[in-house]
Design goal:
The chain has about 400 residues and is an alpha+beta fold. Helix content is about 65%, strand content about 10%. Strands 1, 2, 3, 4, 5, 6 and 7 form a seven-stranded mixed beta sheet that branches.
């Protein structure tokens, strides 16, 4: 074993003689250890089948005893087996502290048996054996450390596989896979109710700002998924509202982004994703906010029908689009300001840094060009929808 001093020939003679006898007693020691462990905790028998446990303890003790009496250059089969056993116990779910207890209890039984053998065969050699105690316990601690490291590695691997499986289930739900029991399996894997209040947030991946991906905020749980062109968050809302969700995310996920309406279960995540994507589609090129679909329903209707949206733009704004770009931009900007000011020319003028009469003049010119009146509800709806369609279809600018 690494780090121990070289044994004398007298020590080798005593040790090899005792180990030869001890190896013949391994089955007996195995039975004793199995009984001790069962008395220490019932989990050993509950987690590890008794026949399997007996065989593995028998092998581990044999390799450990052989390693104790091995030359420095010999391969450490005990450590290889300790690594295998650590991973196996992690898969079976035996607590690590019980696994380490078993190793150290096995070491105690082995040492006591060695003392008994030397006492029976050659009592005068006990001082010689005692000088090997440090090396033996160092070897046992090395075995315990190896099995603990392998156990933790096994746990990490199982968590990774479990996470990948759960994420695959979540992706399938977002995609609309209707496989039987899919929502129930995802609920179990994510520790979420199958029926509950959920929403989906969609962000483009080519956004300017980084995303602070919180896993829980304000009583809500978020599960993030990355796609080629989107980043999504499935949100378990609990009793929270969409307004609270948007407020919590505002400083962490600068827009543009779309938030779906509330859906009533995991099986509806695909619909929520589509609605969140529609909300995102209502964001213009320069938008920097997270928008809820309920705030953008008219624009959502427009982006949902791109062919009809193009016809609407031409039918309503056609004459306006023939103007010089700078002239057209002024009229559309004035319309935007007037709509944002809820029809107040005074507030629109403040936004535009001009006189209110200038606003009136521009709006009258727009009405003349489009043959639409802002005072008629039907015309106002047509102008508003056409403006949304033009804004969302234009790559940049008004």
């Amino acid at each position: 074993m690494g780090g121990r001093r070289a044994r004398t020939e007298a020590e080798w003679s005593v040790l090899l003689t005792a180990v030869d006898v001890l190896l013949g007693r391994v089955p007996e020691l195995t039975e004793q250890l199995i009984g001790d462990l069962a008395q220490h905790s019932p989990l050993y028998d509950l987690v590890v089948p008794r026949d399997e446990h007996w065989q593995q303890i028998n092998e581990a003790m044999r390799y450990g005893i052989e390693a104790f009496a091995a030359r420095r250059s010999d391969a450490r089969k005990d450590l290889v087996y300790a690594e295998e056993l650590g991973r196996r116990r992690a898969e079976q779910g035996l607590p690590l502290d019980l696994l380490l207890y078993a190793y150290r209890r096995a070491g105690r039984l082995t040492w006591d048996a060695l003392l008994d053998i030397v006492t029976e065969e050659d009592p005068d050699a006990l001082p010689v054996l005692a000088r090997s105690a440090g090396a033996m316990w160092a070897g046992i601690e090395q075995q315990a450390a190896t099995t603990a490291e392998a156990y933790r590695a096994g746990e990490r691997e199982m968590r990774r596989r479990s996470d990948e499986r759960v994420q695959a289930l979540l992706d399938a739900l977002l995609q609309g896979d209707a496989a039987p029991g899919l929502a129930a399996r995802a609920a179990a894997g994510l520790d979420l109710p199958e029926q509950g209040r959920y929403a989906v947030v969609v962000l483009p991946v080519d956004r300017r700002d980084s995303v602070h991906r919180v896993a829980a905020v304000g009583g809500m749980r978020l599960f993030w998924r990355m796609r080629a062109e989107q980043e999504l968050a499935v949100v378990a809302l609990g009793s929270c509202t969409l307004e609270e969700l948007a407020a919590e995310l505002a400083d962490r996920c600068h827009g543009p982004g779309g938030i779906s309406p509330v859906v009533d279960g995991l099986a509806e995540l695909s619909r929520a994703r589509r609605l969140a994507e529609t909300a995102l589609a209502t964001c213009g090129a320069e938008e920097r906010s997270l928008v809820r679909l309920s705030q953008r329903l008219p624009a959502a209707l427009v982006v949902g029908q791109p062919e009809l949206a193009g016809e609407l733009v031409q039918a309503v704004l056609g004459p306006l689009l023939e103007l010089d770009p700078a002239d057209r931009a002024v009229l559309l900007e004035t319309l935007d300001a007037w709509l944002a000011a809820e029809g107040s020319a005074g507030r629109a003028a403040t936004r535009l840094y001009c006189h209110r009469n200038t606003v009136f003049n521009r709006l009258r010119r727009l009405e003349h060009l489009t043959s639409r009146s802002l005072s008629r509800p039907h015309d106002l709806v047509a102008l508003t929808l056409a403006r949304d369609a033009h804004r969302l279809s234009a790559p940049t600018g008004p």
